[in-house]
Amino acid sequence: xxxxxxxxxxxxxxxxxxxxxxxVEIEGEVNENGMIxxxxxxxxxxxxxxxxxxxxxxxxxxxxxxxxxxxxNNMKRVIVDYHSTVENICDNFxxxxxEELNKIKGSRFSKLTVKISETPNSTAEKTVEFPRRxxxxxx
Length: 139
What we know:
two-stranded antiparallel ribbon
């Protein structure tokens, strides 16, 4: 994925890209099938994120120069309301995954951690906890 940080004083001001890596960790209670989540179900959540951002240019909504260039050349782009730092990307992806996991009925997730590596030495990580769910037989 390509990006730039237009406000940056260093090299990141320039258009460049990374081969990002994402690690998703989910903690919770094991279900009757012996799983916290089926990897197939997790893939249905993560795959659309990857497909949307893969080989795209992540562009801050106020970076008019780059937005115009991407549009004029019909290039794959994702326009966002945040600066495309690895920390903000991680926050965005964590929020999207958390939202989708919350829709899975009967799940007993307790914690989600997403790690995004921009380079082998540059990683951002975010952990969110799920609210404790009451047992259905409790009043």
